[in-house]
Amino acid sequence: MELNHIKIQKSKADQLLPLLDAIGHEIADRADQLAHVETMSRALSIAPHAHRDELSKLRSEGVVHMRELKRAEEELRALGCSVANLEPLTFRIGDRAKEGFTWIWGTSQVENALAQEQETSTAAP
């Protein structure tokens, strides 16, 4: 289902929600695990010689999480989607310039990206 560079209809965007939900779970889980790896690495880096094996293992885990996040990004791109925001996790569906949509992970409906962008720009000081 290639959606790049086409004007997407809301019904098509709605059909993507289950897949985007699964990708959202993957992104959230990998991001949490990566944050944990980074925290542990910083803590163990105080005495790197004493924790060489643990640090090596953590680096390997970090590489795996980064690779899987990149894979999720590639899956999104193949669907014509992208991550618009990490907090809250928000997906862009279709091309914003061609009246795409956004979806905040965990909500029940997509929003018109162009209308949402206009609301954001008028609300800014």
Please characterize this protein's 3D structure.
Strand 2 (89-93) and strand 3 (101-104) form a beta hairpin. By secondary structure, the chain is α+β, with helices and mostly antiparallel strands. The chain has helices at residues 10-44, 52-78, 113-123, and strands at 81-86, 89-93, 101-104, 111-112. It has one domain (10-123). It has a four-stranded antiparallel sheet. Helix 1 (10-44) packs antiparallel against helix 2 (52-78).
Radius of gyration: 18 Å
Instruction: State the strand order across the main sheet.
Output: 1-2-3-4
Q: Structural class of the helices, strands and pairings?
A: alpha+beta
Mean pLDDT comes to 84
Query: What is the CA–CA distance across the termini?
Result: 40 Å
Helix proportion of residues, in percent? 55-70%
Specify the biggest β-sheet.
Answer: 4 strands, antiparallel
